[in-house]
């Protein structure tokens, strides 16, 4: 399966593959093993839509790869470039009449950064915080919706620094090959402050009769400083200085595939089958 958005770190030249072999083990229970055939049957006749930014696309690509080996080549179609009018990347599983889609909408609401190709993290943003209908019409008939938009709301202050991992000031995930093994680790960010706000919002939705499930992947992902795409993701527009100093442009936001996004989908799989 084609790796979208440069998720294959091996293809990008990464030789150390230890990051692929870690698995998340919760306390008090065991995650069910991801069964691609069972998932495909559960998706028969349905639309699974991931909505959000490139992190959501990371998870979408992981799900496509997890299911790919169980679908015959002639029974699937892939549109790797998406449509510039509906902003979608779509994999159609013909034998199951199912689709797995990613819809680009970094803020979920309308913004001037909604174009799936022509946008940049450093652009000044203009948001229509009460305007979601233009996007929502594309996922109205979805059977399973996965949302994410945290990263873009944090800009321009979003940074991943090695100081949280005991490294020198200004260091990042470049050349990291081991996860953080200290149980209970939290990165020095706003996660702990945001979580109560999210929980209160979910309670408000439930009182309105809408059931929304939060699958908290933040802390479990923070352990995995070894699993970012780092310099092994194709990047455009790099200067000669950046090319000469790889750690200056290491991507410490996105994730290698196989890797952490597979764990997110294992949790999603468990939720779909057991809740």
From TrEMBL:
Record keyword Transmembrane present: yes
Stretches of the chain forming a coiled coil according to its record: none
Membrane topology according to the record: Single-pass membrane protein
Domain Trichome birefringence-like C-terminal: 31-159, 162-270
Keyword Transmembrane helix: yes
Keywords: Membrane, Signal-anchor, Transmembrane, Transmembrane helix
One Pfam entry name: PMR5N
GO molecular function per UniProt: O-acetyltransferase activity
Localization terms from the record: Membrane
Start and end residues of each Trichome birefringence-like N-terminal domain: 4-30
Gene Ontology cellular component annotations, sorted alphabetically: Golgi apparatus; membrane
Family membership: Belongs to the PC-esterase family. TBL subfamily.
Name the record gives this protein: Similar to TRICHOME BIREFRINGENCE-LIKE 34
Originating organism: Actinidia rufa
